[in-house]
Amino acid sequence: MAVKPIPTAAAAAATLHGDQQVAAALLAAAGALRGNGDAVPVPGALPPRPHRRLHRAHCPLPPLLPHTSRPPRVPAPVPPPHLTSGSSGAGRHRGAGVFPLPSCAIPQLLARSSSLPGSPLLAPPGCWAADALLGFPAARCLSTSAASDDDDNERGSSEQEAAAASGQPEHVARVCAAIADVVAAGADANLEAALSALSPPLSEALVLAVLDRFKHAHRPSHRFFRWAAASGGFVHTTITYCKMVHILGKARQFESMVALVQEMGKAGALSMDAFKIAIKSFAAAGEIKNAVGVFELMRKNGFDDGVESFNCLLVALAQEGLGREARQVFEKLCDRYTPDLRSYTALLLAWCNAKNLVEAGRVWNEMLEKGMEPDVVVHNTMIEGLLRGQRRPEAMKMFELMKAKGPLPNARTYTMLIRDHCKRGKMDMAMRCFEEMQEARCQPDVATYTCLLVGYGNAKRMDRVTAVLEDMTQKGCLPDAQTYNALIKLLTNRHMPDDAARIYKKMIKKGLEPTIHTYNMMMKSYFLGGRNYPMGCAVWEEMHQKGICPDVNSYTVFINGHIRHGRPEEACKYIEEMINKGMKAPQIDYNKFAADFSKAGKPDILYELAQKVEFAGKSDVSNVFHQWAERMKSRIKRTVPNQTGNRMF
């Protein structure tokens, strides 16, 4: 794979701007193509860039969804950020070599509405090779194996449901804006009256779209769900029930979740997916008895698929690294079900995730004793466990045995090894493995190339990042959303938020949908690394306009951004909004939060806030503020003047 030099203009930019070399390599060397394939000229001289530092984002705070009535306060001297146009399309598909265990994921639900207006992000004019960034022709897009299960669930929406929701975007936007207004007004506001006044035409697509917008805010989403059922013009379907069960399970509102599953039974809407969601939710919380209880309830209600149901329970435990619990369930139920290869694979995964390689080896031997032939998935699971457990010699030995005796390694096998070399900074070994992969006629996928991009980026070898990007396009393996996220993370870690923003803009143009992690990284970059409050707020607004529901991390980053930039009153407002949605109190800089109020002449602001929300009937919010006040009482040193105006101590 030949390495092409960075263009001279970009090299000059690197000389002028230091770390801008990274962006030059990512932007100019990524192809630098216009829509028609012509090269984009790169200016030779660059004006000084105002914002060069950035960070990784965790959470902001403004109202959910496109809510123009309460924009964040932005200092006047700074010009407003430029808007990007275009909607986020669905360009994500599962890549090759994905672990084929039985899926416990929720059913494919409605995707976010992509019909919202243009977004307030990111592309200051005068960017050199920036607009040429990653100018690859739009085609197939494969997701990497690094995507989390939650991301896969969120991105697994069916095209039919997305099309249905896009047919009524105005109604979705109106309902979501009404809910956001009620949340901002307080938990005691009458959401039901506001929704009844709107009287939207309820349908399965609309309900799913609204629930997806508030999937991290279980209180308003549950109230909307109940209102939709009581409105008289809509009957919840199995899919809408499963979506609500998933929201409650993720928020660990287990009483409400179980009650909803029971309600599904009475309404004749029960499905296997609802039980899988409940089992996975309990397993994620470590409540094994309840997970097994749901499994037994599933059988009693006639949803027993034999060994597949058994495997579903094992996989839920395995994904959480509950090896001992998975073994206990395996031994308890193996008389009722005959374990198959997938059952043992799930048990092997459980021990590998628990980093107990001794027990994993016993499961492997037990499989052989039962006369089972481990396939490539089992081998990959074991190799990945050995790599995580720092047992690389054994992993390499198993890899060599696969090449000699079979099953032959696939793209996932090579990608795991390449990722491990990249994490340890052994890029020469990673490239040797990559070349061996090609010699074995095993085609690299997007996940493989993304690992190399991240590895070379972390090693600050931007010439090789350029070469990998060029080789990627020449082989017809086009970047997907995970690749763009990896490039954004590289730039944010190097304190270059504006360049990360341009990559985001290109990502949108290619029809790839950003995730909540994309926005969190960029927000944190602007608030903490770039010290650019207006652009941090712009990212928050962009996230709303794309219909993405902020999670706890998003709120935490946004609240910390307000505190860091001397806006404690704004932080208080968003903390209250966050708790009204049913989220946990954020982990913020309590010392600075209380100190800012103390300097402003309000040393007892937390007690005052606690009393204020208590009078408003918001006891949960009041308890949070009161706990903070007690915690800060012993930490903040105050200057106590005497009557003469001199310090007493």
UniProtKB/TrEMBL annotation:
Region described as Disordered: 59-94, 145-167
InterPro entries, per the entry: Mito_RNA_Proc_CCM1 (IPR051114), PPR_rpt (IPR002885), TPR-like_helical_dom_sf (IPR011990)
Key words of the record: Repeat, Transit peptide
This protein's record includes keyword Repeat: yes
PPR repeat positions: 340-374, 375-409, 410-444, 445-479, 480-514, 515-550, 551-585
Annotated Pro residues bias: 72-82
Keyword Chaperone: no
Superkingdom, natural source: Eukaryota
Name of the protein in question: Pentatricopeptide repeat-containing protein
